[in-house]
Amino acid sequence: MTDRAYQLQVEPYQRPFRRPLTTRYGTWAVREGAIITLRSTNGAMRQGEIAPLEWFGSESLATALTFCQQFNGRITAAQIAQIPDRYPCCQFAFEMALAGFTPERYSDAPNRDRGLATQRYHIAALLPTGPTAINHWRELYAQGYRSFKWKIGVTDMIDEQIWCQRLYQQLPQDCQLRLDANASLSVRDSEQWLTYLADKSIEYLEQPLHSDCFDAMQILAEKYATPIALDESIANLQQINTCYERGWQGLYVIKPAIVGSPQRLTEFVQQHQIDTVFSSVFETEIGYAAALNLAQSLRTNDRALGFGTNEWWDNQRVSKDL
Ligand SMILES: O=C(O)CCC(=O)c1ccccc1C(=O)O
Ligand SMILES: [Mg+2]
User: Fold this and answer.
1) Which residue of 117, 183, 213, 281 sits 20 to 30 Å from the alpha carbon of 235, by its own alpha carbon?
2) Distance CA 163, CA 243 (A)
3) Which residues hold Mg(2+) (predicted)?
4) In the sheet that 251-254 helps form, which strands lie side by side, from edge to edge?
């Protein structure tokens, strides 16, 4: 087999959110990443996106850029297949760009249009953190969203539960609410939240405890009615595998842009019966489309996709010819 070579171009970008996102990690106002472009010898061109999430343990943008530099503007398919696991975001960017040259793989051209995506797929909208979420959902509801995600564990628990109550009471019957604690709660606070949620129909509570606390999350999952989803605990393929081996039966929130090799992710998801929710990480339209295509091809349930991040940008692209 011939090892095809591609011309490689890497362009870092910075893109501000419409409004900053507050999580327990702090305030996030600008997305930084890089767009990679592969050009084949016959002039065909495909792009991929490196969208790191260092606080989830991925490589940093600086590390990814240094990694890319060593190729000196030229990379082969074999080199792409050998990108080490410590560069999961690079694995995603390069493998997805390369897959784009083989049209049948993860390809669904209209997905490149984020405006269309909202209408075509069942997507959970990400609400602003804190009391702003109250009433804010109405605008998203009018746009067609019926599933909402709200961050918790950011400020005083009693305040958050009062806001949660208001939000929950406001949401129409045809809506679902999922909560994301971003690994910020203690065991005691988690139990308090789960007791508080017991009489409510909440889709799931995402990552209540730090990723070190696997056993404690297992116990929470067994003891309380609200399903528990792992996110920070399964930020890469090795961690997904470890949690699976340890018997995790709850939900797996999978972020294709940071989890690592799309090919090995595909193999894992096809070989194991796991309850998944695929999620975006504020990629630009290039990474977003690639992650959504992968999510569409791998999904095994009809849960809303965690791809509501597109609403957090000012200029939603309408053009399809990226
Ligand atoms: O999952 C979603 O629905 C939205 C995406 C999201 O919440 C998110 C986006 C970027 C980084 C981390 C997270 C998270 O799930 O914690
Ligand atoms: Mg999360």
Assistant:
1) 117
2) 32
3) 180, 206, 231
4) 124-126, 147-151, 176-180, 205-206, 228-230, 251-254, 275-278
How much is the pTM?
A: 0.94
| pLDDT tens column, 288-306 | 999 999 999 999 899 999 9
Using DSSP, state whether 23 is helix, strand or coil. Answer: strand
**Of 168, 161, 181, nearest in space to 134 by CA:** 168
Helix (H, G, I), strand (E, B) or coil at 40: coil
113 labelled as ligand-binding?
Answer: no
Alpha helices in the chain (DSSP H): 61-69, 77-81, 88-99, 114-120, 133-142, 157-170, 187-197, 214-223, 237-245, 256-259, 262-271, 285-298
Residue of 283, 309, 310 to mutate, ligand 1, most atoms within 8 A of C-beta: 309
User: Does residue 152 sit in the same domain as residue 190?
Assistant: yes
Q: Is the pLDDT of residue 108 over 70?
A: no
Q: Which of 56, 180, 185 to mutate to test the pocket of ligand 1 (most atoms within 8 A of CB)?
A: 180
Q: Identity (one letter) of the amino acid at 262?
A: P
Q: How far is the CA of 282 from the centre of ligand 2 (A)?
A: 12
Q: For residues 210 and 76, state if they share a domain.
A: no
Which of 270, 254, 294 lies closest to 95 in space, CA to CA? 294
Assess whether 90 and 113 both reside in one domain: no
> Quick one: which of 39, 33, 30, 10 has its CA closest to 291?
33
Domain end, chosen from 50, 66, 99, is at 99
Q: Which domain holds residue 215?
A: 109-312
Q: What is the CATH number of the domain that holds 260?
A: 3.20.20.120
**Does ipTM top 0.95?**
yes
Question: What is the average pLDDT across 253-258?
Answer: 98
Quick one: 167 and 273 in the same domain? yes
Query: How much of the chain, in percent, has pLDDT values that exceed 70?
Result: 93
In the chain, the number of structural domains is 2
Phi, psi (5° rounding) for residue 227? -60, 150
